[in-house]
Amino acid sequence: MNTTTSSEVINANAAIQRTTASLNRNIDLEKYYELCKQEIDKDGVLTSGEKSLAIKLINIFYDYDKVSYNKGTKRVCENCNEECLATSYCEICIRNYLKKSFSEWSSGNEEIDDLIRKCQMNSVAPDRIIEWIPYNNLRNIKYKTKGGFSEIYTADWIGGSYDKWDSEKRELIRLGNHEIILKNFKSVNRNWIEEV
After folding, report:
1. What is the pLDDT of residue 50?
2. CA–CA gap between residue 29 and residue 13 (Å, rounded)
């Protein structure tokens, strides 16, 4: 079993930061990320495991940027047969997966539900999806402070947020339980929704 240590993650991220700081960002997206990978490959400080991890992370950033900016070489997804931009997942499959579950959740407020659905239909990566969290999926809710128009709490999110796309099972995989920050707004009105 191959496990990644925290020092490997730190070293890989530091190498990516060094590399991206040294490159001109005003070039073609594909060329930019190819140069990033070349620089990581030439890095004499990193171990082979750290290089592999850094390149894996660069590929994740590349997919995110391609989908976000709607730029780059497209491919045909092996599952939905649609053209997509990402290489490690299919943004079309993810959006279709989310769309199928629209009827399975509700905040109780149609405007909020519409906002969440709209965000989901524009999702650019499996780990960047806005979703409604039912109260019964939260544990250990603790008050932290009051600020502005809301009260701040922490809680454990049972199951956690989406993290990865499993193309074989054609489903989003959750991260697992983790702590989150909650804001309890005194009122949710049209202005709040437009600001979000």
Report:
1. 93
2. 20
Pairing, β 178-185 against β 150-157: antiparallel
Beta carbons of 135 and 149 less than 8 angstroms apart: no
Cα separation, 126 vs 98, in Å, equals 10
Largest CA distance in the chain: 55
Distance of alpha carbon 44 from the chain centroid: 30
Model-wide pTM > 0.85: no
- In whole angstroms, what is the distance from residue 118 CA to residue 107 CA? 14
Beta partners for residue 185, in sequence order: 150
Mean residue pLDDT across the chain: 90
Q: What is the DSSP string of 54-116?
A: HHHHHHHHHHHHHHHHT-S--EE-TTT--EES-SSS-HHHHHHHHHHTGGG---S-HHHHHHH
Phi, psi (rounded to 5 degrees) for 76: -95, 125
CB proximity list for 130: less than 8 A, separation 6 or greater: 116, 119, 120, 123
pLDDT for the residue numbered 85: 96
Q: Place 185 in a pLDDT band, splitting at 50, 70 and 90.
A: low
* CA 167 to chain CA centroid, nearest Å: 16
CB atoms within 10 A of CB 97: 19
